[in-house]
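Hi,

I'm pasting everything inline rather than attaching a file, because the server keeps stripping attachments. The sequence lines come first, and each chain or strand is labelled.
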Amino acid sequence: QVQLVQSGAEVKKPGASVKVSCKASGYTFTSYGISWVRQAPGQGLEWMGWISAYNGNTNYAQKLQGRVTMTTDTSTSTAYMELRSLRSDDTAVYYCARSFGAFDIWGQGTMVTVSS
Amino acid sequence: DIQLTQSPSFLSASVGDRVTITCRASQGISSYLAWYQQKPGKAPKLLIYAASTLQSGVPSRFSGSGSGTEFTLTISSLQPEDFATYYCQQLNSYPRFTFGPGTKVDIK
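And the predicted assembly:
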């Protein structure tokens, strides 16, 4: 079946970096984009950025420009999201989602906790 | 960037009620709007895209309407499994997306 499986929970110190993976299966990876969305505890959904799995083109949310990098590895059908210079307000659940326009398939989420 | 507002932020309803949630965009987005349902501890689930197209497998009690700047999500007869938070999302500025702040539907 079509699914996205994300890497496990992470605990990081302020100033560190985190890299979350999202492995796709059940569909042609390069036919869709992948978006990343995060959700701080008790808060709403925040779109972080998008990457084309076809050609690697990216588009990032303005507030994260310079701190986030999204990549893909088409040989393993895996997308990655790296966030640098972590702060306490980056504590959130991070989701990847298949984007055909709307986001029809979501990963299970990865909890990233930033704490000293 | 296009901003989305939702109303109400919270609503209390009973099983069997008809529920309507409104999403407004800061500028016209044609029909490039999607709706999602999220339950606690779970990933969001796509309900409707292109403002009114029901995603495969979603019950027909869910419907969407609108275009331009005003959109609605309607649940014709609220079921126990529908108590959740609902988000709208604009897709007009693809591949830059925005979510609304959410509407929590709770049990009266």
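Chain B touches chain A at residues 1, 32, 34, 36, 38, 43-46, 49-50, 55, 87, 89, 91, 94-102 (CB under 8 Å).

If the labels don't parse on your end, tell me and I'll reformat.
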